[in-house]
Amino acid sequence: MSPRVPPCPQGRTWPWWPAWRGRSWVSPCPHVSPCPPVSPGKDVAVVARVDGAQLSAKAAVKWFKGKWLELGSKSGTRFQFKEAFDKESKVYTFELNISKVVVGDRGDYRCEVTAKDKKDSCSFNIDVEGERGPRHSWTPPGPPRKGPCPPKPHCSLTPLPWDPPLPCLPRGDNKDDAAGELDFSGLLKKRWGHRSVQGRARLDPAYQVDKGNKIKLVVELSDPDLPLKWYKNGQLLKPSTKYVFENVGLKRILTIHKCSLADDAAYECRVNDEKSFTEVFVKEPPVTIEKGLDDQQVFVGDRVVLEAEVSEEGAQVMWLKDGVELTRDDAFKYRFKKDGKKHYLIINEATKEDTGHYKLMTNGGESEAEVIVEEKKLEVLQDIADLTVRAAEQAVFKCEVSDEKVTGKWYKNGVEVRPSKRIRMAHNGRFHTLVIDDVRPEDEGDYTFIPDGYALSLSAKLNFLEPPKIHLDCSGKTAENTIVVVAGNKLRLDVPITGEPAPTVTWWKGEQGRAHLEQQSDLSSLVIESAERGDEGQYRITVTNPAGEDSATITIKVVDVPDPPEAVRVTSVGEDWATLVWEPPKFDGGQPVTGYLVERKKKGSMRWMKLNFEVLAATTFESTRMIEGVFYEMRVLAVNRIGVSAPSRNTQPFMPLAPTSEPTHLTLEDVTDTTATLKWRPPDRVGAGGIDGYLVEYCQEGCECWLPANTELVERCGFTARGLPTGARLLFRVVGVNMAGRSPPATLLQPVTIREIVERPRIRLPRHLRQTYVRRVGEQVNLVVPFQGKPRPCVTWTKEGQPLGADVATRTSDLDTVFFIRTAARAHSGRYELRVRIENMEDAANINLQRPGPPQAVQVREVWGFNAQLEWEPPKDDGNSQPCTPIAPRTLTPRCCCCRPQEWFTVYEHNRAPPFELVMGNEYLFRVFSENMCGTSEAAALSRNTARIPKAGAHRLPPFWGDIPGGLCVCGGCSDTWPKVTWLKNQQDVGADPRFLARHSQGVLTLLIRKPGPVDGGTYGCRAVNELGEVVDINEGAGFVAQPLNIQCDVGT
Asked: Do 667 and 752 form a contact (C-beta atoms < 8 A)?
């Protein structure tokens, strides 16, 4: 057989031709003449030429061996690729060089050339001469047979013509005509004195299979007792679910299930020293477009989404606009999106430049759509709404557009509507109306309004009502039907329905289900892809439309494998055995459980070993023949008529081993009236299985009844036993526990008396609290006082022998007590006492917070002018702080009539005297406070005598008139009450005028005239009135001045 290139297909838009360059022959294009085989070790060159005159882009080439094996840089150094371009003839030249060919290089090859949106390919064959002789021929007895013998295929798939033809065999004397067939096996022949093995059929040179299908490789032996082995890429194949070996008479069959790209390899069968080779090529189906692009017409600024669906998830696609590929460089305008098999091209804000033809290309097809972007001119204010009417009713379609002058036409199912007796059309401003009276069934359809001159249409549907109907045998509200389905199978329930308009279908289930619905015009389908136990129950279908309602109920029962067994656990272990018990599954899958299967594996391994091949009816099993010191895990599977359940939860890892030795160094750490604390060390010999924990037990002295102190194992080497009888003498012991059981116990040598060990209470007062503790007013007080005592003492705080106030907080723990004041005040000063008490034992500590007392012996030493000199002695209590600072406020005595009685004024504070002078004619009484860093004293010391500031010529009545610059001074006799003062202008009260401001301070009255003018000239007076009488003073000296005018007078009290 000689390789041939098939003729170029008709209608190609761009010619190309391959040429052979070997030892001494070249085949022109488009037809390649038969070429002789190439000897192993020679070089082969294949040249393909492409006419680029009709191409819009550079041509690219790909070389393939077989159908899908692409040759590239990873194929090896023996494969070299070259390309060139002749600018004058515009011809592309592509060359494939194979150096030192071998027998494995023979077969079909393919050259594929692409240029933008154009693609073409051509196939050719390379035949490499193999060794002749006993491998491909044998001579049966009899006369020779002439003429070609057709090959005998042994596979349903069409083999590729890879190997060269074998010579015809001569006919033997004692053989039939079939003995002259070609020798396709040439395999099974014994040499060097052994008997000859005659082959009946051999492997074809190559096979091709689609991805996901299965393929069978068949050879036929002359002796059924001969051993045969299969190899893949030189590796021995073993039987499995993927590779199945069959022996049918003399035939030996290798079946490969669910072929994938990994199965694309060289296969070989061997019988003793003889071999037969073949190659399997797995063809991956091309990516096709299942749902193409749709044309779209949008306005400027709208969002455009082009959607297509391909046959494979994650397939590579190419987007083009007007023949130009859209790349990632255009990502700012175009956005590409993949969602499974769906591919999207998104234009967020379309412009008129986006108008064009968009194409989606795959290696198996393409889809094209046109996008038209128009200017948005006419705006729809009210769209047409769908109508559903009954017979003889009126249907009114109404729409509103933005332009009142726009006219349009109405269409029904694409046919223009003409007015008649029943049909009327109206245009009123922006509103367009279509009215249909006495609606009939033939009026049902799609109605469209198209404005004249605009690429715009408004559509609505007129639905004619027909009551819905469910066409089922179980239709009706009382009838039911039960459907049984095996878990894991697909359930599809098709329910025919009718109604006009198309009724709304609703499926109901008591709980949320996994079913999904498929809806058609006259059919509603309930689909459950893989039925599960939760899908069981009653399903109710209801169909409704404006004309009525219908419903039906269907019961679905799911039969499943049982649940896994529960509470699987190992109850006991030995050196090489373990006992496993479990409980039956809660749910048997709707079928009785027939038995159980038990599996075992080593910890960390993924290989489970079955321990029984016949199901067990019991719920216990003893596993033997295990290795001591190795961790194992076990699990159980339940079996019913449907199948085998999922495996149960693995048991805790266990180890066949002996218990540990006893714990060591068991000691008693502490004891109270009801508890005892023990500590110990781990056992000297733990073993390979480790230790799970410890168990503490106790018993009365002289008794052998041991009681557990802990219900759960203790992992640490210490435990406090609680709830013990007070005063009892108890013995304690500790045992270690692991999967092998309990260790020998470790026991205390002496019994323990359960009684509290008393420790006297003691307060450990900090050093800074052993003297007076000082804090400023407003600061925070936080004192921590530790103490000791056992059992926990009772702590008590008091102040001056009285309980603490609500603003003082305390908090006590086992080791200390906290005294806390959020904001300190003068009232918190004093002596605080802390007491800790245990029964009749007590300890106490005192904390002092002091404050200063008032000064002593305050008296007025001297009075001169408007001044007075005071003298006093320091206070008896200075609050354990810095020397006190005096504060001397003053007050007026009731015998003075010029000032408010008992009104105190501060004349000296914090070593600072305010700018104030004593008033003439008043008598003053002084009081003095003392102050330290904690604050002022609560009480004040009053002066023994008073200071009187004399006033010349003062008398009671009549009042004394004295001139003051710019005002009037009024002095009267003494009075017990403060008089009411009124200012007068020309005998009129000016108190209500906002331009006049009256003030008084220290017996001096002032009238302030803001921004005085000529109108303010006149006679001003002052009237003072109390229960003793009335005094009026008139001053005629006020006139116009440029500055504010102050009028003052003195008034005594």
From this structure: no
pLDDT at 143: 38
Cα–Cα distances in Å, from 527 out to 507, 518, 768?
Answer: 12, 7, 84
Peptide bond into 791 cis (omega under 30): yes
Sheet with strand 1045-1050: strands edge to edge: 996-1001, 1004-1009, 1045-1050
Dihedral angle computed from the Cα positions of residues 615, 621, 626 and 628, in that order, rounded to the nearest 10 degrees: 160
Distance CA 130, CA 252 (A): 25
Which pLDDT does position 67 carry in this prediction? 66
Q: What would the two tokens of residue 1010 be?
A: 């803001």
* Type of residue found at 570: V
Tell me how far apart the alpha carbons of residues 524 and 496 are, in angstroms, rounded to a whole number.
Answer: 6
Give the residue, 958 or 1047, on which the prediction is more confident: 1047
Dig out the tokens for 879 from the structure. 């609050």
354 φ, ψ (degrees, to nearest 5)? -80, -5
Mean pLDDT of 833-860: 77
CA angle 186, 190, 191 (to 5 degrees): 105
- Helix extents (H) in 521-619: none
Q: What mean pLDDT is reported for the chain?
A: 76
Residue 343 near residue 337 (C-beta atoms within 8 A): yes
Mean pLDDT of the region 700-707: 90
The closest alpha carbon to 830, from 811, 850, 859, 853, belongs to 850
The β-bridge relationship of strands 548-559 and 480-486 is parallel
What would the mean pLDDT of 619-629 be, rounded to a whole number? 89
* Phi, psi (deg, nearest 5) at residue 435: -115, 130
Cis peptide before 501 (omega within 30 of 0): yes
Which residues sit opposite 540 in a β-bridge? 508, 553
Per the listing, tokens 């990502």 go with 331
Half-sphere exposure of 430 (CA within 13 A, CB side): 10
* Other residues' Cβ atoms within 10 Å of the Cβ of residue 343: 22
Taking a C-beta distance cutoff of 8 angstroms, is the pair 949, 1050 a contact?
Answer: no
Asked if pLDDT for residue 855 goes beyond 60, the answer is yes
Q: Which residues have C-beta within 8 Å of that of residue 837, sequence separation ≥ 6?
A: 761, 793, 794, 796, 843
DSSP 862-894: EEETTEEEEEEE--S-BTTSSPP--B-EEEE-T
Assessment of whether the complete model's pTM goes beyond 0.70: no
Whether the pLDDT of residue 884 is over 90: the answer is no
Which residue in the block uniquely carries the two structure tokens 């009187």? 948
* Rounded-to-integer distance, Cα 66 and Cα 106, Å: 10
Do the Cβ atoms of 567 and 506 come closer than 8 Å? Answer: no
Q: Tell me which residue of 104, 120, 152 sits closest to 18, measured CA to CA.
A: 120
- Strand segments (E) across 52-157: 60-65, 69-71, 79-86, 91-98, 107-115, 118-126
Look-up of token digits 């001159």:
453
- Give 139's DSSP letter: -
Length of the chain: 1053
Question: Do residues 462 and 448 touch, judged by C-beta distance below 8 A?
Answer: no
Rg (CA), the chain: 58
Residue with tokens 């003494």: 974
Tokens of 544: 């409704």
Looking at this protein, which amino acid is placed at residue 1012?
P
Handedness of CA 992, 997, 998, 1000 (dihedral sign): positive
Confirm if 1009 and 966 have CB atoms less than 8 A apart: no
| DSSP H or E stretch at residue 570 | strand 566-573
d(CA 1004, CA 994): 21
Q: What is the largest CA-CA distance in the chain?
A: 181
Cα–Cα distance between 79 and 653 in angstroms, integer? 57
CB atoms within 10 A of CB 193: 5
Containing 297, the helix (H) or strand (E) segment is: strand 296-299
What gap in Å lies between CA 344 and CA 614, rounded to an integer? 57
